[in-house]
């Protein structure tokens, strides 16, 4: 289960704009590949109360991973698109990571 800060930049001191909430599970026998189900739940500005939902495969050691946007709520109702994930920092000792998401979304 995840409930991580969603910030404008990679530093924890960056402005908090929401939470990345959901879960991931190991989904590959040959590499570290995760099944990700995640909501970007916004708490700031005009997107406050809206969400974007991402569901897909995340091969975590690939430089760039693409996952589909399958929906949303609030201002992102009927959202479709994709999210690109890039690992900014990773600690093998703790399993902690900072991941940058660029999300491209169409909505009504």
TrEMBL record:
Q: What GO CC annotations are associated with the protein? A: apoplast
Write the protein's name. Dirigent protein
Concerning InterPro entries, the annotation shows: Allene_oxi_cyc_Dirigent, Dirigent
Biological processes per GO annotation:
phenylpropanoid biosynthetic process
On the tree of life, the source organism's domain of life is: Eukaryota
Keyword Secreted on entry:
yes
One Pfam family here: Dirigent
Keywords attached to this entry: Apoplast, Secreted
Leader sequence segment: none
Q: Where in the cell is it found?
A: Secreted, Extracellular space, Apoplast
Main localisation: secreted
What the protein does comes down to: Dirigent proteins impart stereoselectivity on the phenoxy radical-coupling reaction, yielding optically active lignans from two molecules of coniferyl alcohol in the biosynthesis of lignans, flavonolignans, and alkaloids and thus plays a central role in plant secondary metabolism.
UniProt lists the family membership as follows:
Belongs to the plant dirigent protein family.
Subunit comment: Homodimer.
